[in-house]
Amino acid sequence: MHTLSIGAVFTPSKWANFAIEKFNLLEKWLNGATVFDPTMGEGSLLIALVESALQQGHLIENLPTQNLYGVEMNGQYYQNFLEKVDKYRLAPVNFVNADIFFLPNNLRFDIVFGNPPWQTFANLPESYKEIAKPLYFKYDLVGKAQDLLLGGSRIDIC
């Protein structure tokens, strides 16, 4: 089980509900949109979406829970998520314990609903820096290795 906790910031339900309302996410999801949380932690954003529907009187068996997806790299957070959502009838196959940066890049979803990890390159665990370094080049966050030193090391992984 992967136990790294990189930049974990758990979204309070108040903020999750604000985003759901502000961007009309509940209606979009209920009308068939797929929703993906690429760094789901313990799933507070996805849980807030389901709970919003339940609070409006929708029955769990009528919700499009098969359209919810998520990824979490920390194994403990992932297990906590699975325990919390068992009662919501979510499709376990839609949720994976993996690093979003190393999943296939052909994943397609209608809505990305997430709170990314907030941590600079300089503050990443040493073991993860070596894994993450090539990504900074792949996604044009830095031009050369020297850019990861000094000021460039302040580039946030989010």
Please provide a written account of the structure.
With 158 residues, the protein is an alpha/beta fold. Strand 1, helix 3 and strand 2 form a beta-alpha-beta unit. The model has no long low-confidence stretch (mean pLDDT 85). 33% of the residues lie in helices and 8% in strands. Helix 1 crosses helix 3. It has a four-stranded parallel sheet with strand order 3-2-1-4.
Short description:
The protein is of the alpha/beta class and about 160 residues long.
What's the arrangement of secondary structure elements?
Layout: H1 13-22, H2 25-30, E1 35-37, H3 44-55, E2 68-72, H4 75-85, E3 95-97, E4 111-112, H5 126-138
Instruction: Tell me the series of helices and strands, N- to C-terminal.
Output: HHEHEHEEH
Unreliable residue stretches: none
Q: Characterize the largest beta sheet: strand count, sense, and whether it forms a barrel.
A: 4 strands, parallel
Distance between the termini: 23 Å
Strand content: 5-15%
Number of strands: 4
Q: What Rg do the Cα atoms give?
A: 17 Å
Describe the global form: elongated
Helix amount: 25-40%
- Mean pLDDT over the residues: 85
Note the total helix count: 5
Biggest sheet: strand arrangement: 3-2-1-4
Which keywords apply here?
158 residues; 4-stranded parallel β-sheet; elongated; 4 strands; alpha/beta
